[in-house]
Specification:
Layout lengths: L3 H14 L5 E5 L13 E5 L1 E6 L2 E4 L3 H8 L3 E4 L5 H11 L3 E5 L4 H8 L10 H16 L4 E4 L2 H9 L7 E3 L14 H7 L7 E6 L8 H14 L3 E6 L5 H11 L4 E5 L6 H6 L3 E3 L9 H8 L4 E4 L16 E3 L5 H13 L1 H15 L4 H18 L7 H25 L1 H4 L1
Parallel strand pairs: 1-2, 5-6, 6-7, 7-8, 9-10, 9-12, 10-11, 12-13, 13-14
Antiparallel strand pairs: 3-4
């Protein structure tokens, strides 16, 4: 899948494989071949032809179990459900485990299972149950890595012990995104050379809040005749977004669909403004890549300065409410009408992102891996914790079972 986890794995694997023997366990997806990950032993976990929130369900097989048994350290990048089951296996086999926090599971699960439509239980109770289940899995790990301020807040919400947490910021290959063929790529997609392009690049899913961008289009396009909106990416809601756009605007927007990672620098080079009003995360890889390309970006506000590279009105513009269409319109208009502000924000963004290199990221990750290899995992768990874990798992299963009965399997999947 073309998402942030793939970007991370693809970026860090070459560095890891120089120092360690790597086995990669990934879902078996259409058109995915072993050659996709060079110089790395790859195990394809079986998947079911069912998608939840745009993701297929994958489960460990015997080869996965053997790989975990023969490992020194297991690095898990996602819970649902391949990583979650693998954490039970690592616990049973007493293997050292690192979990890298990439998602806010309650947002993803609310969308995947359409839990917002439940009338039997209040949403805040559902979210608390999800948090309890997620915390159960996190407690099965020896170390939890996080890269952004939002995920630090999430780990605090889950009451993760401070000694288990480690901040390792994500990185970007600034050189890769510092160039692109602006004129050629505009010609390829039929965009006028002198047009101002507002770009969204990422998954077409609920948590990315693309509908707010689309709802801003009528006012922006009516007052700025030389402006276009370009949407790049695929996902479970792309048809909904196309239909919404068609109902609001006649022209001057395009949905390009998924593109290869190698083509992203060209895509970014044709843009003038990058918009990312996600309710899930401000510091996504797509934002980092846009900033490395020297684009002014509009992103959800961060509530502190400890774990962020974003600085409002210095290298980006903040949205206090990413779902407020009027606020987004105002911020886009500021950038459309003022080329000087666009240049200042873009230059500062590129300079800031040049500080975040994969080499620096790898050194921090390597030190944590080597500590676990040298000293091993601490004694894990106790009966009381396991009893709590079972209760949370049972409670979560009951909630989902009630929902399935209420809505029917067809509506769930």
């Amino acid at each position: 899948m073309k998402d942030g986890v793939l970007t991370y794995v693809r970026s860090i694997l070459p560095l890891l494989s120089e120092h360690y023997n790597i086995t990669l366990i990934v879902p078996k997806l259409p058109n995915l071949k072993k050659e996709s990950f060079k110089d790395v032993e790859t195990i394809f976990a079986p998947t079911f032809p069912i998608e939840l929130g745009g993701y297929r369900l994958a489960f460990p097989n015997l080869s996965s179990v053997n790989a975990i048994r023969n490992s020194d350290v297991v690095l898990v990048n996602d819970l649902a459900p391949l990583g979650a089951i693998s954490l039970f296996i690592t616990r049973f086999l007493k293997k050292s485990t690192i979990f890298f926090c990439h998602h806010d599971e309650n947002i993803l699960l609310m969308e995947a299972f359409k839990l917002r439509q439940i009338r039997l239980l209040p949403h805040n109770l559902i979210l608390k149950v999800i948090d309890k289940i997620v915390a159960m899995f996190y407690n099965r790990t020896d170390l939890i890595l996080f890269a952004t301020q939002r995920y630090d807040a999430k780990l605090k919400r889950l009451n993760v012990e401070d000694k288990k947490k480690k901040f390792i910021p994500f990185s970007v290959d600034s050189k890769m995104f510092s160039s692109g063929n602006r004129q050629t790529i505009r010609q390829e997609y039929g965009i006028p050379e002198d047009a101002k392009i507002i770009l969204y690049l990422g998954r077409m899913s609920y948590e990315k809040n693309v509908e707010t961008i689309i709802q801003s289009m009528p006012e922006i396009l009516s007052k700025n005749k030389d402006t276009w909106f370009i949407f790049v990416g695929g996902g479970p809601r792309i048809n909904n977004y196309k239909a919404l756009s068609k109902s609001l605007c006649k022209d001057r927007y395009k949905f390009i669909g998924e593109v290869e990672w190698e083509d992203v620098p060209d895509i970014l080079s044709m843009a003038d403004i990058f918009v990312h009003p996600s309710i899930h995360e401000s510091q996504s890889f797509s934002v980092m890549e846009a900033m490395a390309a020297g684009l002014p970006v509009i992103v959800p506000a961060e509530n502190g300065t400890a774990f962020t590279y974003l600085e409002d009105e210095k290298n980006c513009l903040f949205l206090s409410n990413p779902q407020d269409v009027n606020e987004l319109v105002d911020k886009i208009n500021i950038l459309i009408k003022n080329k000087k502000i666009r240049k200042i924000l873009g230059a500062n963004a590129r300079k800031k992102l040049s500080e975040f290199t994969w080499g620096a990221h790898f050194k921090k990750l390597q030190s944590e891996i080597d500590l676990l290899i040298e000293f091993g995992a601490p004694i894990k768990g106790n009966r009381s914790r396991r009893a709590k874990a079972r209760r949370y798992a049972v409670l979560g299963s009951v909630v989902l079972f009630i929902y399935v009965l209420a809505k029917g399997f067809r509506n769930v999947f």
